[in-house]
Amino acid sequence: MKTLKSVKCGESATVVRLHGQGPIKRRIMDMGITKGVNIFVRKVAPLGDPIEITVLGYELSIRKLDAELIEVV
Q1: Any signal peptide, and if so, which residues (predicted)?
Q2: CA distance linking residue 44 with residue 47, whole number of Å
Q3: Rounded to 5 degrees, what angle do the CA atoms 71, 48, 65 make?
Q4: Where does residue 58 rank: exposed (0-12), middle (13-18), buried (19+ CB within 10 A)?
Q5: Can you give the pTM of this predicted structure?
Q6: What's the rounded Cα separation, in Å, for the pair 7 and 24?
Q7: Which range marks the domain in which residue 8 is found?
Q8: Could you give the number of structural domains in the chain?
Q9: Domain at 16, CATH number
Q10: Beta bridge partners of 43
Q11: Where are the beta strands (DSSP E) in the chain?
Q12: Residue 40 class from Cβ within 10 Å (0-12 exposed, 13-18 middle, 19+ buried)?
């Protein structure tokens, strides 16, 4: 299983599945990250937290722990 955390800077990935439940999953979905969405990783902080991404034309920062819950291809 490949997660968003393992995607390198400058690469794109497509969301296959969201793991987690309750408010954690809802927070991820509120950012526009749902199944089938293309995500571009713009920048990763030196320690890996946060990860700056582009989703549906919006530039977002996501925590490393949340990125582990997003399964991508």
Answers
A1: none
A2: 8
A3: 45
A4: exposed
A5: 0.88
A6: 21
A7: 4-72
A8: 1
A9: 2.30.30.90
A10: 52
A11: 12-18, 38-44, 51-55, 58-62, 70-72
A12: middle
